[in-house]
């Protein structure tokens, strides 16, 4: 357990990011649940309302705030499908640091424009995490930039863990928490916080059935690289979990389940119709899982994390209007 981030680390990150990352609302949607839903109490943690539209501002700002003056002066680089890149761009802008973001050639325009809006330099490389990671590492080496990984770093995990502290503040009686799984930084941080403070809470990871990198790795007993991924949840398309995030999930998470794209769209549409929330597919996947009732600890309150809301208007309109 020595390699896992501590509760003290996460509490310190909470102080560090205060005033930059919002304490996002926890909205009780129990009254809107369909009669057929096996879950009777469901609230959503609205990280789609963060600056830059996603939870990633927590880890990005926490890491940049921990850099020394020389590292800040040289600049930073990362690889991202979009949300981490946008959040790092914003954090760097706030701290006066030059940021280079390597995105996939398939990155949604809304996420590319988001990073550029905050002054970041955007480069494009390949279609998988491994492609853009290699390019980012090359840029870091040639330009003496500091790498800010999207998920596999303790300072990133600390920042994401502050969501776990807020969930317990807002819903101390929570029995089940559903968290999306991309590279694993979000669920690692939330699990590290909640497991220390309320051990009986069931923590359930949710990943797309077309990108089951964490569940495949858990079954193998070690991080596994998928040959391909295919899902509408572009923020969860990592082909491999991180070594550190895998260790956190194996030690602290109760279950990792998969959800298909059709259920994700249904959840996205339900969130808009019932709560008037704009959520991207990666953010809605936890609600899809919650509505199935799988992974529950009991009949008590469940919380689903809405990780982000960065979606092009035309794509969102298609999802919510197509029967």
The topology string of helices and strands comes to HEEHHEHEHEHEHEHEHHEHHEH
* Alpha-beta classification: alpha/beta
Low-confidence stretches are none
Distance between the termini: 47 Å
Number of strand elements? 10
Spatial strand arrangement across the major sheet: 1-2-10-7-8-9
Largest sheet: 6 strands, mixed
Round the mean pLDDT to the nearest integer and report it: 94
Strand content: 5-15%
> What is the radius of gyration?
18 Å
- Can you identify the CATH class of the largest domain? Alpha Beta
Query: What is the molecular shape?
Result: globular
CATH architecture of the largest domain: 3-Layer(aba) Sandwich
Short description:
The protein has 13 helices and ten strands. The protein has 323 residues and is of the alpha/beta class.
Question: Which key phrases capture this entry?
Answer:
323 residues, alpha/beta, Rossmann fold, 4-stranded parallel β-sheet, 13 helices
Give an overview in words.
- It is a single chain.
- Strands 1-2-10-7-8-9 form a six-stranded mixed sheet, with helices on both faces.
- The radius of gyration is 18 Å and the shape is globular.
- It has 323 residues and is α/β, with parallel strands linked by helices.
- Helix 7 packs across helix 8 (185-197), helix 8 (185-197) runs parallel beside helix 10 (243-252) and helix 11 (261-275) packs across helix 12.
- The longest helix is centred in the middle third of the chain and has 17 residues, at 154-170.
- The protein is built from 13 helices and ten strands.
- It folds into two domains: 7-54 and 153-321, 3-Layer(aba) Sandwich (Rossmann fold), CATH 3.40.50.1100; 57-147, Rossmann fold, CATH 3.40.50.
């Amino acid at each position: 357990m020595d390699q896992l981030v501590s509760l003290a680390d996460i509490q310190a990150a909470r102080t560090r990011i205060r005033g930059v990352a919002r304490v996002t609302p926890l909205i009780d949607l129990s009254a809107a649940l369909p009669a057929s839903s096996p879950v009777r109490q469901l609230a959503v943690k609205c990280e789609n309302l963060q600056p830059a539209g996603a939870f990633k501002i927590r880890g990005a700002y926490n890491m940049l705030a921990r850099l020394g003056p020389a590292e800040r002066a040289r600049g930073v680089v990362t690889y991202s499908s979009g949300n981490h890149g946008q959040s790092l761009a914003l954090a760097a802008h706030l701290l006066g640091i030059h940021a280079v973001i390597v995105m996939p050639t398939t990155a949604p325009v809304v996420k590319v424009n988001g990073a550029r809006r905050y002054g970041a330099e955007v480069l494009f490389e390949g279609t998988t995490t491994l492609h853009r990671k290699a390019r980012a590492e090359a840029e870091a080496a040639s330009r003496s930039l500091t790498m800010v990984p999207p998920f596999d770093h303790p300072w990133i995990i600390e920042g994401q863990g502050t969501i776990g502290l807020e969930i317990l503040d807002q819903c101390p009686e929570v029995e089940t928490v559903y968290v999306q799984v991309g590279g694993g930084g979000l669920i690692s941080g939330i699990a590290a916080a909640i497991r220390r403070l309320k051990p009986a809470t069931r923590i359930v990871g949710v990943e797309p059935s077309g990108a089951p990198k964490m569940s495949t790795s858990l079954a193998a007993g070690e991080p596994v690289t998928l040959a391909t991924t295919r899902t509408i949840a572009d923020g969860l398309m990592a082909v491999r979990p991180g070594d550190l995030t895998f260790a956190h999930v194996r030690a602290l998470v109760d279950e990792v389940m998969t959800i298909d794209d059709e259920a994700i769209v249904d959840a996205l549409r339900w969130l808009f119709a019932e709560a008037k929330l704009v959520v991207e597919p990666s953010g809605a996947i936890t609600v899809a899982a919650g509505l199935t009732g799988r992974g529950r600890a009991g009949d008590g309150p469940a919380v689903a994390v809405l990780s982000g809301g960065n979606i092009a208007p035309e794509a969102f309109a298609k999802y919510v209007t197509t029967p």
